[in-house]
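Researcher: Excuse me, tokens okay?
***
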Amino acid sequence: MIGIVSYGVYIPCFRIKPSQIAHAWGRSQKEVENSLGVYEKAVASIDEDTVTLAVEASLKALSSGNINPQEIAAITIGSESHPYAVKPSSTIVAGILGMGTDYLACDLEFACKAGTAGIQLLSGLLKNGHKFCLAIGADVAQSKPADVLEYTASSAAAGFILGKEDTIANILDFTSYSSDTADFWRKDTEKFPTHAGRFTGAPAYFTHVYGASQRLLKKVNIKPQDFDWAIFHMPNAKFPKEAAKKLGFTPKQLAPGFVVEYIGNPYSASSLIGLAATLDQAKQKQKIFMCSYGSGAGADSFIIETTPLINQYQKRNKDTVKKQIKQKTYIDYSLMAKNILTKYRI
């Protein structure tokens, strides 16, 4: 059985409230918060990028699992904010981690589901006898100043070490639902993405999340009420709640992994951090449903079940998602804007 052996999350300590951003652009602060349901988001420091976030998350995964990095046979990094257009992020991270040279490295791009796509791909490699693989979702999410994305686009990373022995949670099954839907895009020469506004909801997010979720539930003949927990990609606080309700999941099932209100949407890391937050407090033999979403568009759904080793792992894992959410320093819009101007050389 292939599953999760260890995981790590890194959330930058800087936070900004959407009300601060709204104030900077002369918009209603309450209207912004009420429409999105996000009260603050994580902001990368001026010296942080997707690679540094990925390294921090991966080091925590290695430490918590007491794993030798040279035993990792493959690494994938899913992101839409890779620092280089031509030069892989995965080899930089692998070099810093000390993985040696005998490994497969791959950078993935599929908007916000590139991290979960890595889990699917690496599951196939593990079946061929490899001991460990590392799947990372990391983003310093891009948003045009004054655009609605600026209120939620955030920064964070999650790394999951996969294996077949001593797993803390097994991946029972997964499936995907994909189509050519132009709801969100950024051409190679552009600094910030463009989106289709309100049309990113029904024809994009909900269609694919429903498609992937219903397909998997039907495939394994399991009902939403048979799960203990559930995680859906969190572009804002309203979409995942609406999707969960229509599929038959309850607010209680969502609660442990519902982190968007306090960190925003770190794109490829969003659903993976929700999974990590859920694993931080899950008990043994509990079933978890997860469905990521990526614009362009596609969704990956997973059924995961914790093992008896989860309790022992939780005692070793001191740097939980909840703890990192609480470790924060608030900044104002001028400092966030300075970071953006410097990073993108505007």
